[in-house]
Amino acid sequence: MLLICLLAASAGKAAIYYISPTGDDNNSGTQSHPWRTYPQAVSTLQAGDTVLVQPGIYSLAANANNSSVCFFTHSGNSNALITFRAVGPVTNQVPFQVVAPYYYFDGFTWDGVPGLFVGGARGGGTPGPGGHHITVTNCTVQNVMGYPFTAF
Known about the structure:
By secondary structure, the protein is an alpha/beta fold.
């Protein structure tokens, strides 16, 4: 009986969080009190969680968590993806680098930056176990100039 209770407590429940350009990273990430940035969401998420990204423009200055990119470092799993879904028009002016497995991105536009990269862990300054099983749907990369490549 104790084992069943411990397993149920550790399994947890997938959460839904919100970010908005008008939010605050000191908020709880709920619909009525959204976070402002991707890095706040990234630092909180667990396998199975979803982030509903509210309409607006998400700047490089506010959303880079490592140099000039936003790293996605927490892992989902094959039964519980980490999902980022745009709810209306969302423009990212920060590139994403996914260095952990099992993510789903839906409905985003990257403007003026090369989009979303999936990478392996390289050690040193690059965190994460390595990205794989990443799904991207209904997304656009536009106005990318001066970059040697664009990724999805």
